[in-house]
Amino acid sequence: MDNETPNCAPDFKGSDLKLKGFRVYEIMGNAATVPTYNRRDFYKIAINTGKNTIHYADRGIETDGTILFFGNPHVPYSWETLSPDYNGFACVFTEDFFKTAERSECLTESQLFKPGGTPIFSLCEEQKYFIDSMFKRMIAEQDSDYVFKDDLIRNCLMLVIHEALKMQPTESFFKHKNASSRITTLFLELLERQFPIETKERPLKLKTPQDFAQNLAIHVNHLNRSVKEITGRSTTSHIAERVISESKALLQHTDWSIADIAYSLGFEYPSYFNNYFKRLTGTIPKAIRG
């Protein structure tokens, strides 16, 4: 997850973002934690001044200065802040918010957001001043009563995007130490990205090592060997641990029926879930619910 910290953590949840489609906030070191979004269903643009290591798919980049970052929900990424003092702005938004009748191009086809692209740009002082001004305008408008504020915000986003398109992307990426490390990182990102479960209507999609291997376009044996080499544990054990952890949370903190929980976790029948849970925990789901 991102390790950014704003000067004042906004009081909103991922569900609010899904409803409104957009949120922008300021980032500053030594303060409360940035809001996290349960699923990376959102595109992200961030400007940050400080020292960071950003991992994006199988690559990483070390930055020291001001950078502009474009996050794609279809590509695993994480952000490690290395300096105690850093600042900037970030916004997250859905594709539906960004798209209008006049602008129908899919974000995933954009040069900035396309998988395999380079989403990090180094900024000079003039570029930083301009991008900062766009974020400040978006912050001022997001809670205003202006009827057409969404259009104004979209225009600000487009100006940021066009400014980036004029730049040359940073190319000082480093590779992971080896292929096993890269594959394991991608697997763990994909696994964690599925949680927490937010709705009964959106069941788990990746449930087996084969599912993950297919998503990563590698053979399942290659995935299993890589995960075992790097973590000392099997792919199946990582998946099982996360499924059990999530099932306990759903049992304890929701009023969903056990059948609904089973379905949301990818089990076709509640009996399959009961047997799976008992085999791994020694007890039945109903006992956890108390």
Automatic annotation (TrEMBL):
InterPro entries cross-referenced by the UniProt entry: Homeodomain-like_sf (IPR009057), HTH_AraC (IPR018060)
Example of a GO MF term: sequence-specific DNA binding
All residue ranges annotated as the HTH araC/xylS-type domain in the record: 181-290
Gene3D superfamilies: Homeodomain-like
Taxonomy, superkingdom: Bacteria
Keywords from the UniProt entry: DNA-binding, Transcription, Transcription regulation
Pfam families (UniProt xref): HTH_18
Protein's UniProt name: Transcriptional regulator
Source organism (scientific name): Flavobacterium rivuli WB 3.3-2 = DSM 21788
Origin organism lineage: Bacteria, Pseudomonadati, Bacteroidota, Flavobacteriia, Flavobacteriales
